[in-house]
Amino acid sequence: MGSSSKNIEQAQECCYLEWMILQSQRIPELKQLLAQRRSHGDEDNDNKLRELTGKIIGDFKNYAAKRADLAHRCSSNYYAPTWNSPLENALIWMGGCRPSSFFRLVYALCGSQTEIRVTQFLRNIDGYESS
Fold this sequence. Notes:
The protein is mainly alpha-helical. It contains six helices and no strands.
């Protein structure tokens, strides 16, 4: 069990590092295009900026999808990744990214039906029939 948990943790860290490498490659390109836009302001540059922005957003979507897939196997690292420094984890929490925030979001999206469904689910687990 410990080995499996360690493998998931390594996969999550690898996923994060891959995304950070992509970001470090995209940032200089973005800065260069922004500097060119300020000096030239041509339409071709705007198209390149849109394309690059699309790539960056796509990179983030891929990262989020991989991270969500890995979170199904081990969710604790989703809230406080072990590869972050204690300061980074503290900033995540101070910034409002807490597990309770996710629960509140799910509750808000699902509405009050969540309580009814959870109660019915728990009754079914306990062997009681829901009426």
